[in-house]
Design brief:
Elements: H1 2-27, E1 44-52, E2 55-63, E3 71-75, H2 84-91, E4 99-103, H3 123-141, E5 146-151, H4 153-164, E6 169-175, H5 181-198, H6 202-211, H7 220-233, H8 246-255, H9 261-282, H10 287-290, E7 298-303, H11 311-320, E8 326-331, H12 338-341, H13 343-354
Parallel strand pairs: 3-4, 3-5, 5-6, 6-7, 7-8
Antiparallel strand pairs: 1-2, 2-4
Helix pairs in contact: 3-4, 5-6, 6-7
Length: about 375
């Protein structure tokens, strides 16, 4: 009997310890690996909340030299798709040349609580959040301007912000650049259906025909997710891959130290909420009329096989766009994510063409 009691106590202790570890995994804020320090200069690797738009929102700052490196602020896609850990894997080499800032936007990832007030989940508010974050970063690091980069949803947010507040930016980099979102979604849907017919994917044909082209009626979010599932399956999101970016993103969410267990468990619900609230507004965005010109240098990085935001339409917007300097770079083995799929070439673009435009960027 004493042995049994002892064994029971031992089991209780183990269960208690396990429960404590699980609770801690929910409470700990996450962390990021150290950054290298170059030539004894001041490096930074900081995962922290900042006050933006009256709420706490999370940013990841990484650099080998915060004194000499220009600031690069990255706007993630989605809406709602946090990329803190995902981007960190692919931007590590850029930390020698930039102070790289990734931000979980209002309602996304670690900033999910900032989206609780649904009345504040508007494109206009997110533009102002972006402005406030930029001003905070410039003041903190003693810079006059920074470089803004956005992919997909982030490219719409980025171009709207640059158009409204050009004085804050040295340059803008758009990846999978959104232009006329309504037209873009139509093109993406029709390409997906035509491809399904070409390869005789009967299930996809049946589902796509049943829901019809956008704007979707009824359960529009289900229709949106269905179309995105098939465009990824057919390689329109990541070139040559039927998995799209979802697997890489999922691995990042599960294993990146930046996320807590709570972040992981609420990730998808945060994405779906952001889509529900912001995507209908995004469908009203037409940058041909809303941002026909900007006062900063503009760089578009376009995957030749992008069918999520069809590259042909991005190129059409590029030709129409008025800017003091603009350059379109094609990535021939990429779809919607050339900054990931051909990151070496993308890094060269940033280092050799974008960085020299920074207000203060001494040689490395």
């Amino acid at each position: 009997m004493p042995f049994e009691n002892s064994n029971g106590s031992f089991k209780s202790a183990i269960l208690g310890a396990a429960a404590g570890m699980l609770a801690a995994s929910f409470m700990l804020p996450g962390e990021t690996p150290p950054a290298r320090s170059r030539n004894g200069s001041r490096s930074i690797a900081s995962l922290e909340p900042v006050r933006i738009g009256g709420t706490d929102q999370w940013i990841l700052i990484r650099s080998e030299d915060v004194v000499n490196n220009p600031l690069l602020l990255i706007l993630h896609g989605g809406p709602g798709t946090s990329e803190l850990g995902f981007q960190r894997q692919y931007t590590r080499a850029l930390e020698a040349y930039f102070t790289v800032v990734n931000w979980d936007q209002r309602g996304s990832g670690k900033s999910r609580r900032a989206g609780k007030d649904e009345s504040m989940m508007t494109i206009g508010r997110l533009v102002e959040d972006t402005r406030e974050l930029v001003q905070l970063l410039l003041a903190r690091f003693g810079k006059k301007k920074l470089i803004l980069q956005g992919r997909s949803w982030g490219s719409a947010l980025g171009m709207l912000t640059v158009s409204k507040y050009p004085e804050l930016f040295d340059a803008y980099v758009g990846i999978g650049q959104i232009s006329d979102m309504s037209r873009s979604e139509q093109m993406s849907y029709h390409w997906t259906l035509e491809h399904a017919r070409r390869i005789a994917d009967k299930k996809a044909i049946r589902e796509l025909e049943a829901m019809g082209p956008p704007p979707y009626s009824g359960d529009w979010l289900k229709s949106f997710n269905t179309q995105r599932k098939y465009v990824a399956k057919y390689g329109g999101e990541m070139y040559g891959s039927g998995l799209g970016g979802n697997v890489a993103m999922l691995q990042s969410i599960l294993f990146s130290a930046e996320y807590t267990m709570a972040d992981r468990l609420t990730y998808n619900s945060s994405v779906q909420r952001s889509l529900r609230l912001l995507h209908p507004q995004l469908m009203e965005v037409n940058l041909f009329t809303m941002a026909p010109g900007v006062e900063v240098p503009v760089f578009f990085a376009e995957g030749r096989y992008d069918r999520v935001v069809p590259a042909a339409l991005s190129a059409e917007y590029f030709e129409a766009l008025q800017a003091p300097h603009k350059k379109l770079t094609w990535f021939e083995r990429s779809a919607h994510m050339p900054d990931i799929e051909e990151y070496d070439q993308f890094h060269r673009l940033l280092r050799e063409q974008v960085r020299p435009l920074a207000t203060y960027a001494p040689g490395v």
